[in-house]
């Protein structure tokens, strides 16, 4: 009866090397595919928020909230919530971007509070203030820099959350560290956003302009 021949050390090393090379080739592609999947989920979430935006405006004389975390609780009845109660909003998965690194963050998006570039708009305003709503951003990915606040508590999403309002050029994706509020490279080299006509899309950071936020 013949002896079964096993692998030699050299053969094992060759196999291990081939596996390591294949992993080095495939892993970047797998990571890119995973990131693309998260980006698609984020845009789909924003699309649902965009629908809530449209329905809310229809029920409120065309007006929408323009600052703080008010939009989160006001839109809840339009995305499956039982009412605009602050303590329920964390259960709404559409409010979370799957790529935001701190999973305790409850405000993954920043809101258009642009007034004149020097001060912010506070309160509710008609969508008709924006002549081309399909070109105007309503929400965009929140930057995850060390200077950005993390809102972990279940309450307190009122208009006092001014650090999530975008109303100055330094808050945009091209703004400096310490001031930037819109994510610069959250999804590839840009961010996702929902526009005032309700559609969602990806915006390259370098192509984001003040005009995309200004009421005009």
Structure description:
The protein has helices at residues 9-59, 70-75, and strands spanning 63-65, 109-112, 124-126, 137-141, 165-166, 190-195, 200-204. The protein is an alpha+beta fold and 216 residues long. The protein has one domain (9-212). The strands form two sheets. The chain has a five-stranded mixed β-sheet. The N and C termini lie far apart (89 Å). The model has no long low-confidence stretch (mean pLDDT 86).
Write the layout of secondary structure elements.
Blueprint: H1 9-59, E1 63-65, H2 70-75, E2 109-112, E3 124-126, E4 137-141, E5 165-166, E6 190-195, E7 200-204
Parallel strand pairs: 2-5
Antiparallel strand pairs: 1-3, 2-4, 4-6, 6-7
């Amino acid at each position: 009866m013949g002896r079964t021949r096993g692998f030699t050390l050299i053969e094992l090393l060759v196999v291990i090397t081939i596996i390591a090379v294949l992993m080095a080739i495939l892993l970047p592609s797998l990571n890119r595919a995973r990131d693309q999947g998260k980006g698609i989920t984020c845009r789909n979430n924003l699309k649902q928020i965009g629908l809530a935006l449209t329905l809310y405006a229809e029920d409120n004389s065309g007006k929408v909230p323009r600052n703080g975390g008010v939009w989160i609780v006001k839109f809840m009845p339009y995305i499956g919530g039982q009412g605009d109660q602050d303590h329920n909003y964390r259960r709404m998965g559409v409010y979370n971007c799957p790529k935001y690194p701190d999973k305790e963050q409850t405000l993954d998006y920043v809101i258009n509070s642009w007034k004149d570039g020097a001060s912010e708009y506070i309160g509710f305003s008609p969508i008709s203030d924006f002549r081309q709503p399909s070109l105007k951003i309503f929400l965009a990915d929140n930057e995850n820099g060390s200077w950005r606040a993390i809102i972990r508590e279940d309450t307190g999403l009122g208009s006092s959350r001014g650090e999530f309002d975008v109303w100055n050029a330094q808050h945009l994706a091209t703004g400096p560290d310490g001031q930037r509020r819109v994510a610069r490279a959250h999804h590839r080299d840009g961010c996702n956003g929902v526009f005032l006509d309700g559609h969602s899309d990806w915006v390259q950071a370098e192509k984001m302009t003040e005009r995309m936020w200004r009421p005009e």
